[in-house]
Structure formats: structure tokens, C-alpha cells
Design a protein that fits this description.
Blueprint (H helix, E strand, L loop, with lengths): L1 H13 L12 H13 L3 H9 L14 H7 L3 H9 L14 H8 L2 H8 L15 H7 L3 H9 L14 H7 L3 H10 L5
Helix pairs in contact: 1-2, 2-4, 4-5, 4-6, 6-7, 6-8, 7-9, 8-9, 8-10, 9-11, 10-11
Length: about 190
């Protein structure tokens, strides 16, 4: 992050004051602008900032990268651009959550499929030991559960509290998800 802020500061020092408001471009404002561009699918702005020296792997205060924000906000073109230009597609935020976990929470099935094609560790865990499969099961994301298991996600894996994808679905009263997970679980596990 410190390198990003250094570059942002250098960029800020070369930009004029906004003509109508007298506003200057501080490093914090440029950093926010960078992450907002990812969140809103503004590839043109990201491209300009990256070409000007902004590091593609910068993290915001919550530890989100531009790639994580673009995926979470279902910005397919931005995800493709960032991946093609060297973004760490398997990066995690400060809580250990990956883009795949974020889209399981958000419910973006098409983005979940796209992210699986990048071949990150399907059973990556966050700081609580939770996986994307657990999140998909918790929030009733049937397609995502099927895809994650087909890519090798472990149905019986448990988080730090001893919860599995099945137990999380049970806690939500989602009988259909429990049945699906039970059917997808390999025999003997």
C-alpha cells in the first residue's frame, strides 16, 4: 500500500486543481478513485491509472484489491482486464476472503463460474477457516455449490467452529441445499 500511495502522491502532484471547485487530488482521493473505478467497471480509468504507475495489486483499507472489488460487484470486463494485466486473481482481503468467496456471498453466478476458470485453490480458507463452498451453501447458491464441488471443493471440510457446508445449510433451514450437498459428498466422507 505504501508504494501505491507514493505513486498516487506523485500523480496527485502533477494534476491541476479541479477548475470548478478548487479541489485538489490528494493521494487518498486518487486511491478512492482507483478502487471506485474497479467497483463500477470503469476499465478506462483503471487502465489510465495503471499505465500512470498505480500498482495493480494495491489494497484499500479493508484489504480489497481492485480485482476483488470488480468481482464482488459483478464487473466481468474489469475482472478480465485486471487478470490479463497481472492482477493476483487468487488474492485475499485482510479477513482472508477471496473473490470467489465474495461472489458466493453476493450471489453472482456468472462471475462465480468465470472465477472458477482462473483455477485458484477451490478450498482456499479465510481467517475463520471458511471456504467459498461454505459461503455458497450458507446463502443457497445452488449453481455455485455444484460448480465448486465439480472443481474439487471438499463438502465435509469444517471451519474453525466445526461447521461444514452441510451444517451451515441446516442452520439456515435449507433442506434442498442439505440434500444437494449430501448427494454431492463422496461416499465415506
Amino acid at each position: 500500500m505504501k508504494y501505491f500511495l507514493t505513486i498516487v502522491f506523485l500523480l496527485a502532484s502533477t494534476l491541476p486543481t479541479h477548475a470548478h471547485s478548487g479541489e485538489t487530488y490528494t493521494p487518498e482521493k486518487l486511491a478512492a478513485f482507483y478502487f471506485d473505478a474497479a467497483r463500477n467497471g470503469r476499465v478506462d480509468i483503471l487502465q489510465g491509472l495503471i499505465e500512470a504507475g498505480a500498482p495493480i495489486e494495491a489494497h484499500n483499507k479493508k484489504g480489497y484489491t481492485a480485482f476483488i472489488l470488480a468481482a464482488y460487484n459483478n464487473q466481468a470486463e474489469t475482472v478480465t482486464y485486471l487478470a490479463a494485466h497481472g492482477a493476483d486473481i487468487c488474492a485475499a482481503d485482510r479477513k482472508g476472503n477471496t473473490a470467489q468467496m465474495g461472489v458466493a456471498f453476493a450471489g453472482h453466478d456468472d462471475m462465480a463460474r468465470k472465477l472458477l476458470d482462473y483455477k485458484c485453490a477451490v478450498d482456499a480458507v479465510n481467517n475463520n477457516g471458511q471456504t467459498a463452498l461454505m459461503m455458497a451453501a450458507l446463502f443457497g447458491r445452488t449453481k455455485q455449490v455444484q460448480w465448486l464441488v465439480s472443481e474439487g471443493a471438499e463438502v465435509g471440510r469444517k471451519d474453525r467452529l466445526g461447521n461444514s457446508a452441510i451444517s451451515l445449510a441446516k442452520q439456515q433451514g435449507n433442506r434442498e441445499m442439505v440434500a444437494l450437498l449430501a448427494a454431492l459428498r463422496p461416499a465415506g466422507s
